[in-house]
Amino acid sequence: DSRIAIGMHGIGRDAGATASTGLAKRDAHGNYPIEMTVRGLTPLPTGGWYVLYLSKKGKATLPCGTFIAGKPPTTVRLSVGYPLEDMFPKEYDGWVVEEHLPGQRDDGGRVVMVTEKA
Questions:
Q1: Global pTM?
Q2: How does pLDDT run across 29-68, given as a tens digit for each residue?
Q3: Sheet with strand 32-39: strands edge to edge
Q4: Which phi and psi angles does 21 have, rounded to 5°?
Q5: Among 24, 34, 47, 79, which residue's beta carbon has the most beta carbons within 10 A?
């Protein structure tokens, strides 16, 4: 039962990609379940992955989980312990997805998806 639904779209070579991200009510332990369905992201080489982040002015800030995209659609279930109801959209104004390629240093990947703007 999602309380917040966020649409995303691809950019660059992944311009045709879309995602629907649903944020559910906090569970009894304080975790926020996130369910994300992605369509059209380029499959990465073995050892690569995508990361969903909360963003501020389009910049990746807090990580919300990693996933691998396969044949569309790909649905992933993530969970964060951040107090999202207090932080989004007050402190953070969107979401971004970055790709991380095999052998890449862990200092940020290429942004491939961003939040839809109303």
A1: 0.89
A2: 989 999 999 999 989 999 999 999 999 888 889 999 999 9
A3: 59-67, 49-56, 94-100, 110-115, 2-10, 18-24, 32-39, 74-80
A4: -120, 120
A5: 34
